[in-house]
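Assemble and predict.
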Amino acid sequence: MTAATIFGTPESLTDRVTHYCPGCTHGIIHRLVAESLDELGLRETTVGIAPVGCAVLAYHYFACDFQEAPHGRAPALATGAKRARPDLTVFTYQGDGDLASIGTAELIHAANRGEKFTIIFVNNAIYGMTGGQMAPTTMPGQVTSTSPAGRDVDQVGYPLRVAELIATLRTPSYVERVSVHTPHHIINAKRAVRQAFEYQKAGRCFSLVEVLSTCPTNWGLTPLESLKWVEETMLPYYPLGLKKSPDDEV
Amino acid sequence: MAKKLMKGNEAIGEAAVQAGCRHYFAYPITPQTEVAEYLVRRMPEVDGVFLQAESEVAASNMLFGASAAGVRTFTSSSSPGISLMAESISYIAGAQLPVVYVNIMRGGPGLGGILPAQSDYFQATKGGGHGDYHLLVLAPSTVQEAVDHVILAFELAEKYRNPVMVLGDGMIGQMMEPVQFPAEAVTEPPDRPWATVGMKNRPQNLIRSLFLNADELEANNLELRAKYDLMERDEVRFEFYHADEEMDVMVVAYGTMARIAKTAIDALRADGVKVGLVRPISLYPFPKRAVREAAGRAKAVLVVELSTGQMVEDVEWAAPEGVPIHFFGKVGGNIPPPEDISEEISKVLGGKATPRGLYGRVEEAS
Amino acid sequence: MPKVLIEPDRCKGCELCNAACPQQILAMSKEINTKGYFYAQVTDPTRCIGCRLCAISCPDVAIAVRTHAVRYNLFEY
């Protein structure tokens, strides 16, 4: 009897090694999306929209058609693509600088219109690609290259909780926050990512999954310490769980 | 098809539908909002998509997504809105996407006014966004020509995989004139093998403008430049109005200013004055050779614009050495009647007008 | 018996898999891979229970898991 592969590379991922830093959990999140596309048979009819940020090069790692958006505008490109081709599966993959800072208007209005695409929002509480600046999701007191004395909430306010923000909109949607800092959490995150694509496949509603992620390089922590930092610092402020379901009463 | 009396903005909307466009994303802004008000009713009749975006920034980026997904798409806006779209226009040019923009200009800068102007010439022809790119720019002077240019714009956008802008002023949008549409509307979807419509039995289609590797970005820039060289060779459009004869004064004007200038020219020619008009129709590519050739037959050139002088710089550049270049501009939304232009021409004829010097008017005034 | 297959040159030495393995049978190599990282290795294949948590935790899809025997589905993935 030949050995069965019980865990391998999803078809929706190319075999290219990513440019992400060692221990950066972008790689895990990419895989969860790819596994979902495979399992739902969507790869050949999917268009991904890349952000500006570390994940701009996502199109090298996904084996599906891709568009690359100006910083923060991915939800607008996705709106155009989905309205042009409702039969295609459309998803944006965005970091917190891209989505929660410059792209806030595009995010809120795409969600409020109930656009039937999926947003994978990676929240690592910092600007990664540009070298570790403060983001709208940077934690209080968190040191970054533009908050050298730590985020001062009196000066720049508190971190933005995107999932809760979008959950307040009346238009039906699926919004969940998950994390990938332990195997248990990764398995749960996979469920949520797949659920988002299932809602899209059924043409049901707008879907957004916020995934807490790590940035060892710019946090100045080892990969394992970064996982701990997510658990101890981010989790209390960014509670995990389902924030909005399309079945909720409008 | 019989002629129909239509408002410019509505005719522009219908022209897009006749050109086979089924996806319109826009944001309200005077003086062109009637395009949206027309298409919100019209698009459903042709199974098209109408979507009002949350901003011009979003609207133009929706065009990116839709065009890259293989459909003809366009937006219409006005000056401040086009400024907001500048970033995505640069991306759309960089990613080589066919998209059509209609700019019905209003007074600027800033919030400016809502009356007609031609003060976005630089923005349209010299690039309102970043990087080496060009919009192909067409300037209609009548509502009929606006219809023709919108239809032509979709063809040229597809031909060059480049954004194309139809640049009218407030009057073009607000006037009602009889228009005729082509006998046959375009219904065939465009052929775009490069579109992101699902990676099935083929390599990935990727629509992007990021090229981190210098050689790759250089290659992309040179590929765009090659297209612009082709446009400068094959897409120059202009009209000579008595400009193929000897002229005492050659007027250069585009859009509605050219129409008003023609009325002034007709009156003067009736009095035996030798005056003609060169009307650029493509603002990019600018008709340099036509202006140079015609200016060779003129004793003086008078450029007329609804601005403080923008196209005049291209005329100065194109005109041969020794021909004095005069400028007459009206701004703020004030539209000069033909008599104002005739008076200006007479001043030039009588040597009472001061040509634009190398250092502009301020130095000569002192 | 389940078998964990690690591609040394995909590994970036982040050690997330080490922490994830319930059997604690993963450790970093002494040699470096082509990119200069110490890469993950299985220290005692006989104690592998085929739970896949190492592969699930890997950000670089450097780990595949194979098995002959029937295995218990400890979780839905």
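The beta strands of chain C are 3-6, 26-32, 38-42, 63-67.
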